[in-house]
Design brief:
- By secondary structure, the chain is α+β, with helices and mostly antiparallel strands.
- It has 4 domains: 30-42 and 327-396, conserved putative lor/sdh protein from methanococcus maripaludis s2 fold, CATH 2.40.420.20; 47-53 and 235-325, Beta Barrel (Elongation Factor Tu (Ef-tu), domain 3), CATH 2.40.30.170; 58-88 and 202-233, RNA polymerase II/Efflux pump adaptor protein, barrel-sandwich hybrid domain (OB fold (Dihydrolipoamide Acetyltransferase, E2P), Beta Barrel); 98-196.
- 29% of the residues lie in helices and 37% in strands.
- The protein has 4 helices and 23 strands.
- The protein has helices spanning 5-25, 98-145, 150-193, 246-249; strands at residues 30-36, 38-54, 57-61, 66-68, 78-79, 84-89, 202-205, 210-215, 221-223, 228-233, 238-245, 257-261, 269-276, 281-284, 290-300, 315-332, 337-339, 342-349, 352-358, 360-364, 367-370, 379-382, 394-396.
- Strands 2-11-15-13-12-16 form a 6-stranded antiparallel β-barrel. Strands 3-10-8-5 form a 4-stranded antiparallel sheet, with no helix packed on it. A 4-stranded antiparallel sheet has the order 7-6-4-9, with no helix packed on it.
- It is rod-shaped.
- The model has no long low-confidence stretch (mean pLDDT 85).
Length: 397
């Protein structure tokens, strides 16, 4: 049987059609994004934003009530220890109406008369005391000569003691009368001295050397005792306050290394955790969720010349180291997914995705550390979709 050229062509066309249909029906490789498994040092950190704070700040308050003169200092002005930074004058005495003033003048006259009467009483008591002393001396002389009895001597001694007590009482009364005169004069001093009377002032000095951080009251006004006037601190003595979740604070230890980023200057500053405050507080997150957070205090270790532009209350980012491990496999955290109770990844092997269960050591941020189930250089699928399963052909994007 002879095969014609037409049949050959027809057979080839049919084979090509079958091959085209087979290729069309064959599953196409799923495009995926992969990352290589690396081996090196893994560092787990707690990343939170924080702010700077002057370690020691002093709030200068009014020591007494009165009228505060205008404060000439501004925020940022340097001050020295014991330098006068504010002045307070005592409040002016209240005005008296005509009737009250007349009563005060009459009260002054009464006090002056009482003072004269007390002075006369003192002179009378002094004379009686002198006479009693003279009688006592005479009685002692007569008793020594035997010309007087012992009873007469005792009576003379008693009279002398009573006279001395009366003299002291008169002197006390005279002292009290003098104070009453001073009190009455003080009430009228506002009208008697006039505008030439000296104004008493109380100077407030800086407790330490530093810089004025804030002026609470700048204009002249009446202040009460204890009212805050201004704040003073040393901007070179900065610390960083970072509030972290309480579950993360459990892992942080004093002395932990801190990387300080996005602080406004070039490079990354180094720091160290000094203290983790023992009490947490409730804070509402940006999503409206209540969170228990803890303040972590951080010291800046980098030279002050590198961050001299930082001030009080500046914002920055902190990365607090809580775990380190050397010579371990590292993969992107996006490659991990749960399968049952285990962590798994998809590894690209000869163009196909292969499921592999791993033993996760630790994850932090964008990376995770894996124990020995992966080989450096292997490629894992990052963020695998539901189209990926074991044995599926894949292609790299």
């Amino acid at each position: 049987m002879r095969i014609t050229a037409g049949r050959v062509v027809m057979a080839l066309g049919l084979a090509a059609a079958v091959a085209g249909v087979a290729w069309f029906l064959m599953p196409r490789p799923v495009p995926v994004e992969t990352a290589a498994v690396a081996r090196g040092r893994f560092v787990a950190t707690v990343d939170e934003d924080g702010k700077t704070r002057i370690r020691e700040r002093y709030v200068v308050a009014a020591p007494l009530a009165g009228r505060l003169t205008r404060v000439g200092l501004k925020a940022g002005d340097p001050v020295a220890s014991d330098e006068v930074i504010a002045t307070i004058m005592p409040p002016a005495a209240p005005l008296l109406d005509l009737r009250s003033r007349r009563e005060a003048e009459e009260r002054l006259g009464t006090a002056e008369a009482a003072l004269e009467r007390s002075k006369a009483a003192v002179e009378r008591a002094q004379a009686q005391a002198d006479q009693a002393k003279t009688d006592l001396d005479r009685a002692r002389t007569l008793a020594a000569q035997g010309a007087s009895t012992v009873q007469a001597l005792e009576r003379a001694e008693l009279v002398q003691r009573v006279a001395d007590r009366d003299l002291r009482a008169a002197e006390f009364q005279d002292h009290a009368a003098a104070h009453e005169v001073y009190q009455a004069k003080a009430l009228l001093a506002r009208y008697q001295d006039g505008a030439d009377a000296p104004i008493e002032r109380w100077n407030i000095t800086a407790p330490v050397s530093g810089v004025v951080l804030r002026v609470a009251q700048e204009s002249e006004t009446v202040v009460q005792s204890g009212a805050p006037l201004l704040e003073i601190g040393d901007p070179r003595d900065l610390e960083i306050v970072t509030d972290v979740l309480s579950v993360d604070a459990v892992e942080i230890r004093p002395g932990a290394e801190v990387a300080i980023e996005h602080w406004g200057g070039p490079g990354v500053l180094s720091g160290r955790v000094r203290r983790i405050e023992p009490a947490a507080f409730t804070k509402i997150s940006t999503l409206g969720v209540e969170e228990q957070r803890v303040n972590v205090l951080i010291d800046v270790l980098s030279p002050q010349e590198l961050w001299k532009g930082l001030g009080d209350g500046y914002q920055l980012d902190t990365r607090i180291t809580v775990f380190t491990r050397d010579d371990i496999e590292i993969i992107p955290a996006g490659a991990l997914f749960r399968r049952g109770d285990n962590w798994s990844v998809y590894v690209v092997d000869d163009g196909r995705a292969q499921l592999r269960t791993i033993d996760l050591e630790r994850r932090s941020g964008r990376f995770a550390a894996v124990k020995k189930e992966l080989t450096p250089g292997e490629r894992v699928i990052v963020y695998p979709s539901d189209q990926i399963s074991s044995g599926v052909r894949v292609s790299l994007k």
